[in-house]
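Translate sequence into structure tokens.
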Amino acid sequence: MSQYVEVDIERVTVVFAAEGLAGHHDAEIGPATTVKEFVEIAVTKTGIEGLLEVYVEDAEEPLGHDSVLIEHLSVEFAPLHVAKPGKIATTVRYQGRHVEHPFRPSATAAKVTRWAVGELAPTEDPIDFQLKHDGQVLPPDSHLGQAARGEKSIVLDLVFKVKPQG
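Result follows.
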């Protein structure tokens, strides 16, 4: 007996973020749409051109262009990320120190925060911290590729979250 349920679908809507662009976009795909075909859809929707890779959120490796996209979608919602090849050289500063690490554009601010706290304040709880870029707080579910605005390097500040007193 299989643990998977076969579903006959004609079209499904996927949500994706694009490196260098704010917000999310959506696209309809079919059950046999390849990653390469999805890239063509993403180019039409966003205007981004060039060789693009597709990532599942927080993934370390891009999806193969010949693979069927729907086979990589999670049961739990997670947007895809479309980006130009390469990692983003990420510097995180905290209390006069800094650490560096290359992340994929699909990395969320939450993932980078957990890593940075582990490196710079290992006795602290990552839930008490957030990242800022150019003085603006990055939402935990935002993608590094969007924050870097299409660049392949970024400098972030690790700061304590403001806790309401009351």
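Note: The chain has a mean pLDDT of 89.
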